[in-house]
Amino acid sequence: MPKIKHIAIATQDPDKTAKFYIDVFGMREIAKLDSPNAKGYYLSDGNINLAILDFQNDQVAGAEYGKNYSGIHHIGFEVENLEEVEKKLAEAGSAPRDDINQALGIAMPGAAHANVETKYTGPNGEIVDVSATGWVGTRGFD
Q: What is the CATH number of domain 3-131?
């Protein structure tokens, strides 16, 4: 059964946002992100990865959000069978977000990136991503 394992929050102040989730909810910093696409943090409670992202360009953020958007950006599901879920997404009318996937350099033949997954459109226009490998911090801390 697919499980929610990843939630991404877009923010203009990743330090302040990460501090909030660490101080208030006891989330642990798993990694710091500093790339041409996004700066921020990966936090975890040992089960869910919370990405705090300051997007550096509109292409990676998605045209409907842009790099200046702040708020919940996308939700990620870890799945056992990626091909089966991709088929169900297609049957449900969910299209791959090729614009974002290409901007990230994922979902292309031979592409493999740690902690990056394939993005799709949800039924209300939200971004949904699916991963067969999961995210850092979603298997406990040990």
A: 3.10.180.10
